[in-house]
Amino acid sequence: MLNAEGKSKGTLYVVATPIGNLCDITLRALQILSTVDIIAAEHVQNAHKLLARHAVQARIMPLHQHNEARAAEKIVELLKDNKSIALITDAGTPGISDPGAWLVHVAREQGFQVVPIPGANAALCALSASGLIAPHFFFHGFLPVKSGERRRKLTALKNLYACILVFYEAPHRVLESVADMIAVFGPAREITFARELTKLFETIHTCALGDALDWLQADTNRLKGEFVLLLSPASKPERETDISLEAEQMLMILQKELSLKQAVQLTAEITGENRKQLYALALEKQKLMPENEI
Q1: What whole-number distance in Å separates Cα of residue 95 and Cα of residue 106?
Q2: What is the pLDDT of residue 291?
Q3: What is the pTM of this model?
Q4: What is residue 179's three-state secondary structure?
Q5: CA dihedral angle for residue 54, residue 58, residue 61, residue 62, rounded to 10 degrees
Q6: How far is CA 35 from the centre of its chain?
Q7: How high is the pLDDT of residue 252?
């Protein structure tokens, strides 16, 4: 890739780092960190600790939530000068509830190559060991600090069916957040606490939301460390038929204009629903319709 002067452009590497255990870093990540011109790190001191553990020497510059816009401008100039930059955060993958997304946006907008170097991620680490089963998960990240706004966010997610909800939370707010979850979701829904992942006191515990506060407060050590909170999927209200609500509504509309057979056939073709189930539903609905509508 060439710039306006015909010189090759620099590359930005987005490098995932360990979330706790410093051995959880890939060989490729170490290779990149060893060879780039500069490492942009969330906190320089933490970066030095990681690099020292793996005998990597490098020039480091700070890039955190308070200076990311200014740092991004400097990094773009370095990229224009054909420098290679590695972006890291204190733990996990940059840009995922951590600084870095703006830098990546600016670099791509300027036409520079951005190369992801995958690795540790707290949300996926917790999800993989939770034992929760669902076809989907929704990653929210950190919840709002204030209770009112936090409850509004949670309420918006209340009816997200067949989906595990994944949150990050700080230790000093976990009790408040769990209390709000109980208020919004009720005491029966299950929650999994994943704290201190990959560290010495790693804990993964699942219980009903109604029991969660007692579990947390039973041992003060359980309130320490960064948390991943996973909520089991909401139960979808039972319906009389497996036919989707959209298909049922379409069938009812078509029944008013077409014969039963035509309404069923057209609904099945458009929605992909089972024709026999649609026909049975149509007959049932027809019995319930007033005589002047048949």
Answers
A1: 13
A2: 47
A3: 0.76
A4: helix
A5: 0
A6: 31
A7: 85
Q: How far is the C-alpha of 273 from the C-alpha of 253, rounded, in Å?
A: 16
What residue has token string 């909170």?
229
Which residue type sits at 61?
M
Q: Residue 13's beta-bridge partner residues?
A: 86, 115
DSSP-derived 3-state class of residue 149 = helix
Residue from 76, 99, 92 nearest 12 by CA: 76
Distance separating alpha carbons of residues 294 and 282, to the nearest angstrom: 12
Tokens (6 digits) for 239: 């319906």
Give mean pLDDT in consecutive 10-residue pieces for the chain, a chain of 294 residues: 51 97 97 97 96 96 96 97 97 95 97 97 97 94 96 92 95 97 96 97 97 97 96 74 79 86 89 86 68 44
Of the CATH numbers 1.10.10.10, 3.40.1010.10, 3.30.870.10, 3.40.30.10, which one belongs to the domain with range 11-120? 3.40.1010.10
HSE-CB for 129 with a 13 A CA cutoff: 16
> Considering just the CA atoms, what is the radius of gyration of the chain in Å?
26
CATH hierarchy code of domain 124-231: 3.30.950.10
**φ and ψ at residue 131, rounded to 5 degrees:** 80, 0
